[in-house]
Amino acid sequence: MRKSFTKLGVYCSLFLSLAGAAKAQSTDTVAEFKPGGKVWGYAFGDFAEKGSTDNIGTTAAPVYRGGANQYTGMPANASLFQLRRVYLGYNYDISPRFSAEFLLAAEDNFNGGLINQGAGDITTNGKFAPYVKLANIRWKNLWHNTDLVIGSQATPSFAKTGRNDQTAEEVWSYRSIERTITDVRRTPSFDMGASLQGWFDNKGCFGYMVMVANGTSAKPETDGFKWFSGDVYAKFLDKRLLIDVYQDYERLNWGVFVPGHNGPWYHDRNMTKLFAAWNSKMLTVGTEIYQNTILGDTKVAGKDGNTYYRTSKAMGMEFFVRGRIISNPQGNQVLGFFARYDNYDPSGNLSNVVGDANVKSYTGVTSTYEPTTKEQFVTFGLDFTPFKNVHFMPNVWMNTYNSSLDVAGTNSASTKYSAMNSLVSGVKGTDAVYRLTFYYVYGK
């Protein structure tokens, strides 16, 4: 009962604070303001040809690594024209203090069948399908230099509108080529929740964003746990040098009973990330480094017949460079270049797991953080821009896989690592794709 009254008091205090802010702001209404909105959008896709395919299984029973990647399972020599993302958005200014954002998105258009890819945003008959990605309202300057946003919105690590205008994705600037390294591992780039976005100064050189959300992106919430995330950033030297620190936390499963003496399953995740970049008109370089610790994310089958859950630790590093080669007389880019290298290692605690004499087998609970396979990603290409917001980009996309465990290795009970998990292999494989990517923007 006391707990319920405490919650009620918090909610009432918040309501009264918002009501006070609304009353204060009502005096600032600009008489000549006219509500209005704008349609915008963009699309990108490619002609792509697969040069080589990673497969550590057999023709009858293929085993593909890199389940989070867009070309996993696509056979060598296959080629396709494809749209990988289509956006249709609408932004509306309701008043000087309130604005709304709406976005339909169709993306991840990968179907089963000929190219052996898992379903993405497609209907049951294989057609490209849009969904509601963003739908939110922004209360501007709820208090000095701080906005409140409620609804489905971009998350702190990816928000490109509002208070932070230099996230890793925006500085990289080539989402049409590949997601950022944390996005590849499906850290939510958008979610349903509430956030505060603010500046510590009037010039926007120092700021923050904090958010509480479902942690399920566009899908409905299915549990009582919430995803907490936030970052703080600083911009120096006329905003050319950017430093951004990000942190999140979410409970995934908590106190779930597991048969045997292991007791309840406690499963959560927390990620710490540093992003730094030098951003100029002619040349931009950046790096993003993170560690994701996922408690209870490696499921172990013990020789004693019990199930155990062990902690996984993954680290990732991304380094990119992009720049101009030719500009037109108006100063806009006509020809540019880009290159990026990622190193991903999810095996931070795996040696401790497999070293246990009681381990019979193990699997990763979160598919995008399966602990067995290390990855190295490389992309590079040219960006031909015949007109602003129209891009044609010949590029190479390569992801290389290797096992983090020695295929001949054994634990203290002489059990081979390769017997514990089918992904333990001495085979190094690469998914290599050669593409001509097109990207266009309208309404902006």
What would you note in describing this structure?
- The chain is 10% helix and 52% strand.
- The protein is mainly beta.
- It has one domain: Porin, CATH 2.40.160.10.
- Mean pLDDT is 89; it is low at 4-8 and 111-118.
How much helix, percentage-wise, in residues? under 10%
Q: So, CATH architecture?
A: Beta Barrel
Strand content is over 45%
> What is the overall pLDDT average?
89
Structural class category: mainly beta
Query: What is the name of the CATH superfamily?
Result: Porin
- Largest sheet entry: 16 strands, antiparallel, barrel
Number of strands: 17
- Quick one: overall form? globular
State the end-to-end CA separation.
53 Å
What is the CATH top level name? Mainly Beta
Radius of gyration, CA atoms, in whole angstroms: 24 Å
Runs in which pLDDT lies below 50 for 5 or more consecutive residues are 4-8, 111-118
Reading side by side through the largest sheet, how are the strands ordered? Answer: 1-2-3-4-5-6-7-8-9-10-11-12-13-15-16-17
The figure for the number of domains is 1
DSSP helical segment count: 5
Which fold does the CATH topology refer to? Answer: Porin
Keywords:
444 residues, mainly beta, Porin, 16-stranded antiparallel beta barrel, 5 helices, 17 strands, 10% helix, 52% strand, globular
